[in-house]
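User: Structure please.
Assistant: Input sequence and predicted structure:
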Amino acid sequence: TINTGGDITTSGGVVLTAGQTAATGVITEAGTGKILTASGLTTSSKGTQTLNNANTVGAFNATNTVAAGDILLTNTAAPLSITLISQNAAGNVVINNTGGITLNGNVNFNGNTGNLTLNASGVINQASGAITNNNAASTSTFAAGATNNITLGGSNDFNERSEEHTSELQS
């Protein structure tokens, strides 16, 4: 378990790795601890990643390798660049960003159950990469600010339950 009880402040990137030699390992922000002004945040775990404090990272790359668990991020960036999300175990991915979200890499559930939720107060734009969330029990939900667009332009693979919400969806 990695607990960030205090703030981590840097203009560079932050890498958090948990459970690489153990069967499981989680990443958790404790108390009010958060990651501030980092150009990027890369996480790798064998279990849940709970980063729900007031983070301010420019880019996010997350991998959950084997143990069931969610990938959760609350952030403020204009926009947040998602460079990779790889959920290799049962679990949800929930990204809440104050600002837009730009998808610059793959978002992959690798056939596992879990729901994908991207919430942004700005636009959601898929610049590159593919979104794969095709398990019959999973959903994909996208929510942009009230007058903002969601643009999905990649080679995406959703199941029939997936939903895309906004005032205007473009593909």
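The chain has a mean pLDDT of 87.
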